[in-house]
Amino acid sequence: MKLSLSPAEAEFASDVRRFFAEDYPQDILQQMRGGGLLTRADHVRSQQALQSRGWLGIGWPREHGGPGWTPVQKYIFEQELERAGAPNIIPMAVIYIGPIICAFGNADQQNRWLSDILESRALWAQGYSEPESGSDLASLRMTAVRDGDDYILDGTKIWTSGAHWADWIFCLVRTSREERKQDGISLICVPLDAIGVRVEPIRSIDGTHELNRVQFDQVRTSAANLIGEEGRGWHYANVLLGAERLSYAHIGSKKAGLAAIRRIAAELPGDFGGTMLAEPAFRDRLALLDIRVAAIEISVLRALTGETGPATISSLKIACTEAAQAITELWLELAGRYRAPLLDRNRPDWSSAVPAAFRFAAPQTASYLFERAQTIYGGASEVQKNIIWRHLARGNMIPRPGQ
Ligand SMILES: Cc1cc2nc3c(=O)[nH]c(=O)nc-3n(C[C@H](O)[C@H](O)[C@H](O)COP(=O)(O)OP(=O)(O)OC[C@H]3O[C@@H](n4cnc5c(N)ncnc54)[C@H](O)[C@@H]3O)c2cc1C
């Protein structure tokens, strides 16, 4: 199946492509191409450049500052952003909580938070997981007890991406104990500089600091920061997770990754006198991944333009994240030949120790290691398979055991 764009969509795609080539900060693209790590300020600059065109809140309703794009335009935009090699939008505020505030927040919350998110004046973190509550998220224990106009929060969130540079965190907390563990959960936002909040770093296997443990010790936050109704947090959490799981598609970066692998493999010597790319086994793996990505692209587009249920979203989450990992495995095969050391890319001079031909190896090895997490975060693959089974069985599309 071949995707063809209407003339208006093709014009839109060239406008976006021109923006990244001419108006977007080129030093950020350069930094990304060189495999360096971006600072908070770089991410903010990147997002502000997108917002200078009104292109940040791409899934937001127009009345709250979204661009009013069709699903295909959103898809084109994401493809072009990734084709250009620009960093992805930090999702926690713009993709996850922003649309929830638009849909379920009150006017005061929309006034207080939405423009700060769109202007990247405030970054957010996602406080779902707890030390004993990851896959079984509804078993979470962090409490919020009402005290006059405030809530008092106690508990621990863990694996909190970007909490060390965020200004706010949205937390799932228990406001009451009910028979069903999914009931009595609420969604409350907390400024990360509140008294009693402690953010502790967790170093990940690629040597970077992205993850944190966030401790809440008698933290007082205004009841005006409760989103929607008390006790309805599980519903909002699941709406948010649907959007989160669909956002892992990253088709543009998968295609760009495969193209880069092909380019580099055409220059590296293989084992049989030719280049790496000339080796049939390597070519086969590349071709299979091309086919996989093309199939995923069609499925993602179908999901974006039609009715999407939880089973579809979960199958796409598995397909997209496993394909991303397979691409990093191919990178590792190229990198392995050069015995790349895992350099500390937090050092500004990290690449000066590596000959030019080897430079791709350090960031790609790091990426191989970090991307193991793709099939864990946003709900592990096993949990997605449980969701698929539950929804298909409910729709009687597959027989239940014993039937
Ligand atoms: C890089 C990274 C970033 C993250 N960022 C965030 C963040 O910003 N905010 C946040 O709130 N969380 C974040 N997380 C946490 C993530 O959502 C959890 O790690 C994930 O939900 C799994 O939970 P867990 O780690 O407690 O593993 P567990 O739930 O203990 O699972 C361990 C293993 O058991 C399997 N398993 C568990 N239950 C079942 C079952 N019922 N059936 C079959 N198999 C099962 C799992 O699939 C997994 O393989 C992040 C995680 C990572 C790795």
Give a nutshell description of this structure.
This protein is α+β, with helices and mostly antiparallel strands and 403 residues long. It has helices spanning 7-23, 26-33, 40-51, 71-84, 91-104, 107-118, 233-246, 251-265, 280-305, 310-336, 361-370, 381-394, and strands spanning 124-127, 143-147, 150-158, 168-174, 185-191, 197-203, 209-222, 226-227.
> What is the ordering of alpha helices and beta strands?
HHHHHHEEEEEEEEHHHHHH
Poorly predicted tracts of residues: 398-403
Q: Could you say which structural class the secondary elements and strand pairing correspond to?
A: alpha+beta
What characteristic shape results from the CA principal axes?
globular
- Portion of residues in beta strands equals 5-15%
Query: Whole-Å distance between the termini?
Result: 37 Å
- Cofactors, ions and other ligands in the entry: flavin-adenine dinucleotide
User: How many structural units, i.e. domains?
Assistant: 3
> Would you give the CATH topology of the largest domain?
Butyryl-CoA Dehydrogenase, subunit A, domain 3
CATH class assignment of the largest domain = Mainly Alpha
CATH architecture of the largest domain: Up-down Bundle
In spatial order, strands of the major sheet run 1-4-5-8
Let me know the largest β-sheet. Answer: 4 strands, mixed
| Mean pLDDT figure | 92
Helix count, per DSSP? 12
CATH homologous superfamily designation of the largest domain:
Butyryl-CoA Dehydrogenase, subunit A, domain 3
Beta strands, count: 8
Binned, the helix content reads: 40-55%
- What's the Cα radius of gyration? 22 Å
